[in-house]
Amino acid sequence: MQPALNVHAGCGTKTMGVGSRGHSRILTINGGSSSLKFALVQWTDLIARVLSGRVDRIGLENALWVMNGPDGSREEERWVVAPDVRAAVRLVIDRLERSGGFAAIASVGHRVVHGGSRYHQPDRVTAELIEELRKVSAYDPDHLPGEIELIETFRTRDPDLPQVACVDTAFHHDMPRVAQIVPIPRRYEAAGVRRYGFHGLSYAYLMEELARVAPPEEARGRVILAHLGAGASLAAVQGGHSVDTTMGFTPASGLVMGTRTGDLDPGLVQFLSRSEGMTADRFDNLVNHESGLLGVSETSSDVRDLLARQNGDVRAAEVVRSFYYRVKQWIGGFAATLGGLDALVFAGGIGENAPEIRRRICAGLGFVGIALDEGRNTAGALLISTDPGPVKVRVIHTDEELMIAGAAARLMARFS
Fold first, then answer.
1. Of 75, 227, 352, 407, which shows the fewest CB atoms inside 10 Å?
2. Is-same-fold flag (9-191+407-415; 215-395)?
3. Which CATH superfamily is domain 215-395 in?
4. What is the dihedral of CA 314, 320, 325, 328, to 10 degrees?
């Protein structure tokens, strides 16, 4: 028996026969620079995840294939060969074809990190859309070229299979003008240089879930969302709309992350260019793949490893402190932007699973009304703040795949 998924608000529109092919299953593809997540979702009266999985360590000698069944239990785990994302998605396609699942797919929904200034809503993949993504690939060279390859792989396998691009910047598209401006000469704005923000699929899901579990005045009030994982960001939300976010023109800005620097003094570009002859490409690799938790600790980009080592390794202790220190700073800043705070929501791999990090972030934030209940926090309860506290602090499991599936289902229903 397949468990039903939480369905509500925007992603919850029941859509029978989501595509002209007469099928009701949607394959979601969420590709990163070194990983690929996928899920097959049945989108009918009973909305259920048929299977899900991921390919990790793409580009390394041994990539890891993991597949989970309908109830989330692990069904397969093995080493595979995946030198690039195209090879990784072929593994997914081959697996579905062997089980007969590929033929039942109505559409494929892709998480596309950046759509530039033109694409900011889910849209059906066309030759025109792909060409536009190629034009803006320089905005995010770590993600967009690989995402285009994923789309092209499915087009090669089945040219008639509808595909939908779900842009991760959409949630922040209508941020106030003051939050969009990048303070460099205005002429660059015509080339698309502005603060876009990311993790939008996650934030859209979190706001829908918050509206389901919290009183209306909380969900429509002053909310800070904390998507904390290998990639990490915060969003300030009021009245259900994004007011500001920590990531800007690219996902490299904002908080300290697994391998990314977050905000950085731009003077470092000139310094490293002169002192080491560092090129722009080399600098890009430095700030996106060699820095953050990995760069400072010199051992790991994984918070779990660093927490385990912090008592005996000063480097691990320092970078953990740096991580929660920056998150705390941004929470304080966003509380000022919002004029107060009604709710703080933790999500993402770190936000959902690291009570020590949540505790350290919230320590000292009593002046904005945050007070954790230690027992609830340690247990990972949905509500981890004290009952009399004015700010509700919650832990919500985010689900980007469900948002992608919902967007694809609604869009394909329009074309059927």
1. 75
2. yes
3. ATPase, nucleotide binding domain (3.30.420.40)
4. -160
At residue 316, the pLDDT reads: 98
Q: What superfamily does domain 9-191+407-415 belong to in CATH?
A: ATPase, nucleotide binding domain (3.30.420.40)
Q: How many C-beta atoms lie closer than 10 Å to residue 212's C-beta?
A: 14
Domain boundaries, the chain: 9-191+407-415, 215-395
Catalytic residues: 168
pLDDT of res. 19: 54
pTM: 0.91
Residue type, 176: P
Burial class (CB in 10 A: 0-12, 13-18, 19+), 160: exposed
Contact by Cβ (8 Å): 82, 64: no
- 43-59 residue pLDDT tens: 876 678 899 999 988 88
Tokens at 220, concatenated: 């429509």
With beta carbons less than 8 A apart as the criterion, state whether 240 and 219 touch: yes
Residue 82 is which amino acid? A
Q: What is the pLDDT of residues 96-139, one digit of tens each?
A: 999 888 989 999 999 999 988 888 899 999 999 999 999 999 88
